[in-house]
Structures are given as C-alpha cells and as structure tokens.
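Q: Hi! First time asking for a complex rather than a single chain. Here are the components, and I think there are two in total. Is that enough to go on?
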Amino acid sequence: MTPAALPAEPAQLLEMYRSMVQIRTFEDTVQKLYEKALVHGSTHLCQGQEAVAVGWAAALTPDDYTSYTYRGHGHALARGMSPEAAFAEILGRSTGVNRGKGGSMHLTDARLGLMGCFAIVGSGLPVAVGLGRGAQLRRETRVSVTFFGDGASNIGAFHESLNLAAIWKAPVIFVCENNLYGEYSRINLTTTVDDIAVRATAYAMPSQIVDGNDVQAVYQAAQTVVERARTGGGPTLVECKTYRQRGHSRSDAGAYRPPEEVTSWLARDPLIITRRQLLDSGSVTSADIAAVDDSVATAIANAAAAAEQAPWPDLAEITRDVHA
Amino acid sequence: MPDATVTYREALNHALADALAEDPAVVLLGEDIAAAGGSFKVTDGLLARFGPDRVMDTPISETGFLGAAVGLALIGFRPVVEIMFAEFAGVAFDQIVTTAAKHRYLSAGQMHVPMVVRVVGGSGLGFGAQHSQTTESWYTATPGLKVVTAASPQDAYHLLRSAIADPDPVVFIEHKRLYVRRGPFQPTAAPVPIGRAAVVRSGADLTIVASLAMVAESLAAAESLAAAGIDVEVIDIRTLVPMDVDTVVASVSRTARLLVVEEQPLSGGWSGHLVAEVVSRAFESLELPPARMGVVEAPIPFSHALEAKAVPSAETIAARATTLLGR
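A: Yes, that's all I need. Here is the structure of the assembled complex.
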C-alpha cells in the first residue's frame, strides 16, 4: 500500500513558498534584463506555473532525474540551481551553468539531476523514458520526472514515450503543465480533449489531474505518484492545470488571450494561494512572508548584478565540447 | 593458424556479442532484434545469451527508442540501436541530430552521449526507393556526430567495437547487400580506430576512394583495369566524420589522379567535400581534374532492370577510369 501523502507542514510550506517567490522574482528579473537588451536571443518565462516546479521538486530526492523544456528556469531553480549561475547562463557569460553555451532554453546541471532542458517540443520525453529505464535496469529506486506543456501532447514523441514507458513499466512520471496555450494557440484550437490526462488510458497508464496552482495539491499528488514509480508501479501521467501569466516568449504580450481569462487566473496566482494557506495555518505571519519576499528580492538582485558583471566566455568555447 | 573467414553479418554479430560480454553498460535496442534476432539476423542469438535486459525489442517507435537510448547513454549505458532500414531514422531525426549530437555541447561537457546508431542502408536487393538509400549525407553535416562505414567483415567487427567504445554518438552505416559477403576475420587484430581510411589496394596510376559496397565494386574495377595496364590504388574512406583526408592526399601525391565513388547522389555527398579538401591541399599534385561518381539524381528505382543501373558498378567505374586516363 502506498502511504497516504501528507500536506507540507507550515515550515516546509514556507520553504516551498520561498522557492516559488525565488522563481517569480527570477523570471521578472529576466524580463527586465531582456528589456534592457542584456539578453541575447529569446526567453520563455514561467510566471504563474511556479507551484508545479516547486511541488514536484519537494517530492523528489537529489538522486532523481528531471528533464524539462525551454520554459524551464523554474524547474532548474526548484531543484537547487544557483540563481547567479542561471542568470549568467541566460546572459551568455562564462560563469553560466553551461558556460554560456546553452542559454535560456538549456539550463542543465547533471549534479542536481537536471539531465536535460529541451528546446524541441516533446523531445525530452523519450530521453526521460531512457533515464527511467536505466534506473530500472540497475534496480535503483530513482525516478525520472519529465515536464512538458499541453502542446507537446499532440506530438508523436509524447505518444511513443508513454507507450514505451508503459511496456517497460519504467519509473517515469510524465507531468503535463497544461497552461492552456501551445505557443500562441489556445488548447481548444489544437486539441479535442479538455483533459490531457485522458490520453493515458490509451496506454493503460494511470493518470491524475491536479490543480497546478496549488503547491500543496501538487506536492501531495507528487508524493503518491513518485512512491508508485519507486516501488515498481510504473509510469503515470499527471496533468497540472495551470496558466502562463505572460506570453509565449520575450516579445509576445499574449494579446490573443481573453482579458477575463487572464483576470480569473491572476486571481488564482499560486503565490496568492500559498500565502493564504500559510496564514490559515496559524503558524506563519504576514511578517514572516514579507521577510521571505524581502530576502529573496535581495538575493535575486545580487545574483543578477553579479551575473551582469561576469566575464564573457573564452573564444575556445566555440569548438569545445563538440566531441570528447 | 590461417585466418577464419566470416560473413559481414557474422562479424557484426561477433562485435555486438563481444561488446556485451566485456562491458555490462552495453545494451541493444531495436525493432525485432531480440526474439527474432533482427530483420537481417545481425543480432541472432544475442537475446538467448544476454537476456532481455541487455537485448531489448522495442515497438515500431524510432523516436521513442532512439530517445530512450539517449537517456540511457546520459547515465552511463552504451546503447547500440538498430535502425532496420536507413530511412526509418527519418521519423526520429530529432533525437539523433538535435538531441544526441548536441547534448555534450549544450551541457558544456557535463554530460555526453556514448551511443551507436546502426543504420542499415544500401541498394541492390530490390527494396525500392524508401528502403534502399545509404543516407550518409543526412548525418555528415551535423557537428557532434561521427559517421562510420564498414566495407569488410574485418572492418565491420573492429569499427563497430570502436564505435561502441567511443564516448560520443556514432552513426554506424551498414550495407545490407554486404551482409552475406565473406572475408578474413581476426578479432584479436589491432583495433581499427575511427577516423582512419585504409589503402585496400596499392597502385600507381589512379586513386579510387570509395565506401561500403562501392569498395568491392572499385576493387573489381581495379582488377579489370589491371588487365588493361592501369594500376589502380583503392582507398576505403571508412570514416566520413572525421574524414581522413591525409591518406587520400598521400595517395594522390603518388598517383596524381583521383576518382571518388559513393552510393549516394553527388549533390551534397561526401565525395564533394573530399575532392574540395584534396584540391585545396594537393592541387599541384593533380594531373587531371578529380572525378566523382554517385547514384543517379533520382530515388533508387525498384525494377531489377533499373536498380543496378542507377548505382555505380565495377563496369561503370572501370569505364570512367579508362576515360579519365584517356586510354
């Protein structure tokens, strides 16, 4: 029997809140850096989706593998990437986590289990199956969690990956962050089902739908699903319903979204929900929350400033790491 | 002890078996490779010997299993994937050229992808336009990949072993028409490193460079040309990326004449790259403009009457050489 998943205690929830605020502040800062013309290329921000990254990260151990997408800053930070190394990567500096060779769409750090950040829609899913299969072949208890958007559920790689993971009963967890938009197109224009989760039935795979803006709900679901994967129960598809508060990428204001839709989702901002949960617990005060907000704001500002001062990569990096 | 002789298929099977036996990180994935022993029987018997955790049948799902191989490689496995027909890789190109080829670079060397993609290519068996190409050009323009071909059983064994031992993704192109070819086999011979061409016949009048099935055609052409008094050197280029131009330049410095033969359309083919390199490095050695032969600029036709005529053969290579030398 899988033990019942428990909600986070107030102290842990406050840490999860800190992690979410860190992601939000980081992303807001990336936007400002972009507006100052300091970011070469594109950025895909995840404001509004922080509870998914943080709720899952809280349910994982350092040995577990995660893979994610070009909208992946939150997942990297949630599992412990230093904001300074992430900023430096986004700014293309030598102190970046990938020495400036990956950029915004490729924040990876194998030491943190961050095995791949994929810029091609759906591309990370089969790789995640291999990571889980490897753990299974080695009789390890690690799990492989892969994050992707609703748009990816229409590409072949999604279906092939679910099928392969299901056949192998591999410890792979497919987490769809359904933020309602695949780039600029609303999901109802591209997808005939309202719930991506139903697609698991085609592969005889369990699935679950979770409120992706409620970090407690994500954390509780994640614990159950991770435990199932760790104990040989095979893969699961989890759909986290959430919302991309900004546009698709740096220059997209998202004007194609109905204003009432934006308004209703902003009212369900994951930070608002978590603050309410903290206050309702009775053991966290507004002052405690404000202290977290302030300390994160300072740390992120310092990290961005340090990254802005970091040196450019050595020109030898152009041809380094093509082959061994 | 005289050399044993084996078929090209048997040599590949030996290479896979020896790699599986020596290194527990080696795993095989592909369609019908386990229970059925492979569509071309290259993996015959390996399931029984190594079990289903090492030799894995997959669904018909190239994106799925190529991507899974990348994931396995990232955590220290050495997956060897069979692509039953070269064209099947087309549905999964993303995983080869965009994921496997770039992960070392994008992670600044934190991770690497020691995987081999065995691609079964080549014409001559009447499989038609969607099952008969050799497809080297699909890969040679992608930094991060190595591209290796084998023309003999001996090279098939040793180059596949080298490919499996390589720390980076290698596309290993086999030729289905060669599977039944028999040749000498010394598994204990010195390893054949990736990136070295081989002079397979020495000669003084003309250098012919070829790969895969075109090596045997070129050797047969050389025999008939010898009867006409033309002494041909034949080089098997073997590795297309990285390409051993030095060996070709050294040969041309002696023969002063170059003909390159590949089983692909010449547009975008590796022979163009090789000729450009030789011309820029050894222009003064050349007495004649280098020549190239390839597949006609058309899909490979099905009919037996057409297929053989679309691809260079010993006869057409000999004829071209004769014309080239003005004999």
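A: The mean pLDDT of chain A is 96. Let me know if you'd like any chain examined more closely.
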